[in-house]
Amino acid sequence: MNDFVTKLPLAMQFYLIGLIYRNSRMSCLCLSELVQVAHDRLYRVLYLAFPYSRRLWEFIATNLVKADGYLLIDDTTWQRFGKKMAGVSFVWDSTLSKRVFGMQIVLLIWTDGRWRVPLGLRIWQKGGKSKLKLAQEMVCEARRRGITPMYVLFDSWYGGAELLNLLDSFGWQYITKAKKNRLLDKVRLDKIFRHRFGRATGNLKKIQHKCLIVKDGKKYYLTNNQSLPSAEVKRIYRLRQQIEEVFRLLKQEFGWGRCRAGSIQSQKAHLHLGLYAFCLTQNKAIEQNQTIYAFKQDLFRRQIPTQLQFVQHFTAIA
Q: Pick the residue with more confidence: 99 or 197?
């Protein structure tokens, strides 16, 4: 990963400078004023025939992902205005608890509790594959590339039978949340437990393996590791919060949701460049024993670097 930046096209390096050093409007015109490059040159970056996903694996994930760790699956939403834009429709926003007109992204990341490494993303489109199918595709790709996580963590939206059966067939363990109306041995979960805390094993509808249910107040945790202590189930599941923080960083600091381009191709390019910027910044922040927010504040106080200064600063990454 030391020479990752140098292997990117020159115009793409300028685009990354704008994403990393400033937190401004993400139009190519605004970025061009920051990095002193013609905006047409940056605009063409979004339409390059560039293997963004493969480069994410080859130059970033292969250097940072270790044998253990955890895979996290989740999606995020942001509003977009303009009905002629590709990939935009009415979607559910869990933050606002209502449907909004916008775009929804499914993301897969690996973490060991400290490092957070994006492995892939998919844009959900109305009339296309479901979010569950998109998540399955990324999980299968992760397995093909040799990743063997200790656990796969996701919320109840991804707790469908297809994904649970797929993970169990891989020999992978998972922890998710279950809704109270889910049936365990043909009985609703909220009818099984009489007390605030408890655990039970049994068969869920359409699930081809036995599962463990752990109750904690009004929450129900679901895992295929029947011997896992209840406290460990809850402790491990808390690591899922890492992907929520990644979404927050990508939106606040790296331009997710603020690209004005209208095509799916350009949106994918911008989203992947946001992931590149996140990974480069995270590596430097950890190297200097800082949080990403603190490191970004330091960068904001500095003058926008030249392309050569940028390469020199970000190529010394272990």
A: 197
